[in-house]
Amino acid sequence: MVKKLVRFFSSLKLTISLLIILALTSIIGTVIQQQQNPAIYVQQFGKSTYQILKILGFFDLYHSWWFITLLALLALNLLVCSLRRLPRDLKLILSPKVKITDNELKSLRPQEKISTNLPSVDQTLEVVLTALKNSGFGCHHKVKDEGVGWYLFSERGKLGRLAFHITHLSIIIIFAGAIIGAAKGFKGFINIFEGEKGKFITLQSGGQGMRELDFEVECKKFEVIYYQDATGNPTNRPKDYKSLLAIHDHGREVLAKEIEVNSPLNYHGIYFYQSSFGEIPRLTITVKTRQGEPIGSFDVWEGGSFRFSDQNGQQTQVTLLRYFPDFYMNQNGQVDSRSNVPNNPAAFLEIKPANDQPQQTWVFYRFPDFPHGGQTDYRFSLTSINSGKKFTGLQVVRDPGVPLVWTGCIILIIGIIVLFSVPHERLWVVIADKGSGQEIMIIGNTNKNKPSFQGRFAQIVTNLKSDLADRTK
Amino acid sequence: MNVAFFLISLGCYFGAVFCHLMNLINQRVWARQWGNLLTLSGFIFHTLALIVRLWHSGHIPIANLHESLSFFGWAIILFYLVLEYKYRIPSLGAFVLPLALVFVFSASMLPKEIQPLIPALQSMWLGIHTTTSFGGYATFAFAFVAGIMYLIQENQLRSKKIGLFYYRLPSLEVLDDLIHKSLVFGFPLLTIGIITGSLWANTAWGSYWSWDPKETWALITWFIYAALVHARFTIGWRGRKSAYLAIIGFCFVLFTFLGVNLLLKGLHSYA
User: Fold this and answer.
1) Which residue numbers of B have CB closer than 8 Å to A's CBs?
2) How many CB atoms lie within 10 A of CB A385?
């Protein structure tokens, strides 16, 4: 039973079937967009098809239980296959068989028999050893057998015999790294305004959860450089964007680094990658009293607020709740922005006097006379829209599996190159003393690229024959 | 300047393909010699075009569709010249050069201006990742062509009629060996291409594998060739089965290279 299982899991048919099944099923995930909002899928496929596809895991195919199972089977297949072959291959390179048996002699190819009438075995041995040395093989082991004569053995490319195991092991290492990353890592993003700090990461996988870092990240400066056109004016194609980040741990700045695309910041294994950027406009709100006496102008952005006080020292707080660059009423009668172009800028403000109920009001850039200020003692107007507050978009990743994945990748590259380019070649020579002369058997074996080896084998035989002929003269 | 060199090389390749096809039909030695001379001249101009382009743009010229098609064709021609110099496989040029011409010609139909690189592409990985990937693709093109030639030749042998191509195509052994060699070089190159791509993705996007369509299709192609390599080297699937798999494998290569960019959405959409 165990034997049957081992045979099943080490079978090459399983390997090839798994590779082809993995290839074909992976296609599905490139045709159906992955990890989208369910509403989009329902709209695309209809309710019932959606249910079926969801059960099949097609919307997050590469993380579905059956795809992971296929990958696990492949890993198991590699492992069992390698472990099954390993003892044999290790024996082959650690304790090579110098004294070749008659059975092996019959089965191994290429082989060649040469007769010589040199007077002594030792003379023949000397010629053979020189020939082997010149061929680049040399002689690694020689054993004298009183009954027969000499057994010689040499080999090249032992590593080639192990490359199979190295390559397969490297893939297991990569899988292990991926599992560690999935189990212990996280991936998310954070937008930080220039000059501000942040510590809450919006996670990308596993729902839309948040994660609080145990330190703060500050974006000290953010900068975009654009490509210039032929006349030297900037285009809208970014050439580079970079953020000067600082890490504040326990209230102390511990690290500062400028990051850009392809060059992240690492703090305690958490990496910050420059991923995007954006800007929210800065609005200027001018405040006057109901009678028209100016109080002041204040800069504010969406979500931000400002305060002012009247002559009695009473404070009023104004918050910019929403900003619409291109204000309009949509067909449902709701306010919305038609575009991001400031065609009809409008701001929705909340005004909270020190000891009164908050009130809300609209202000329009194009309609400064619109009654704005509600029941309060003040009048507000939107007097300018400035290019505003920049934020940097950071991808935040912790993946403790990465070193293991890279180790696996490097081993894989080395293993695969050795596997294809270093054959394990072995050469046996048996010199049998026949009394009046000797009989030399040369036997070769390689685990890959047989034609090339056969060519060199024939060359060795030809050279040896001529060396022997020279000596007999 | 680079465009002029590129167009001259395209002209040479047209001539080369014509000569090699003449050679296939008429078996004239001069046609083959002229074909190779034109291929070599085309290759020299093509190389100059790439160097000038590299000089002007400051990055390896494999950053948009025109550049990648052009480089793909260039790599195939390079490997062809090496094979022709070392092994002189009969009629190989007549089969592989038209394929290279298709890529170079398609490249010539696309906008050829040098475009500035978006920030994600400004990395030393651009050169390593693209050359190894396209090196792998170009190598597989030879397995594909050898597969087609194998099937034609075998078909003639089976029908026991000595057809038009019998003496003009290499023997089945030579073709099978060409498939073998392509896999031995192509599979490690594809592997390195995928690994360097994921290294790069990790420094640029913070994730070495995102199942982006391009990545996934490269992996699919890798699965297919891994299956082929195992079938060949371990069970000994030689000959016809190998030839079919080499042809199918290259269809996956083409989809990974072109199909993904033209039909699917993803992070590689600039290439």
Assistant:
1) 116, 118-120, 122-123, 177, 184-185, 187-188, 191-192, 195, 198-200, 202-209, 211, 213, 216-217, 219-220, 223-224, 226-227, 230-231, 233-235, 252, 260, 264-265
2) 16
Q: What is the mean pLDDT of each run of 10 residues along chain B (271 residues)?
A: 91 95 86 94 97 92 92 97 92 95 95 85 91 97 96 86 74 92 95 95 89 93 94 83 94 94 65 41
Average pLDDT over residues A75-104: 88
CB contact under 8 A, A413 and B177: no
pTM for the whole structure: 0.85
Residues B111 and B125 in one domain: no
Mean pLDDT calculated for residue range A21-28: 95
CATH architecture of the domain covering A97-157+423-472? 2-Layer Sandwich (3.30)
CB < 8 Å to A260, chain B: 119
Domain boundary among B100, B116, B132: B116
Query: How near does any CA of chain B get to the CA of A395, in Å?
Result: 7
Amino acid A256: pLDDT: 93
For residue B127, the enclosing domain spans 120-271
Cβ-nearest to A395 among B198, B206, B219: B206
CA distance A222 to A280: 14
> What's the complex ipTM?
0.92
Q: Domain ranges in chain A? A: 2-92, 97-157+423-472, 184-278+392-413, 281-388
**A386, burial (CB in 10 Å: exposed 0-12, middle 13-18, buried 19+):** exposed
Gap between the Cα atoms of A73 and A79, Å rounded: 10
Please state the domain count of chain B.
2
Q: Kindly state the average pLDDT of the residues A267-286.
A: 88
Cα distance between residue A33 and residue A38, in whole Å: 11
> Is residue B44 located within the same domain as residue B101?
yes
In the DSSP assignment, the letter for residue A110 is S
Coil, helix or strand at residue A314: coil
In this structure, the answer to whether residues B101 and B127 fall within a common structural domain is no
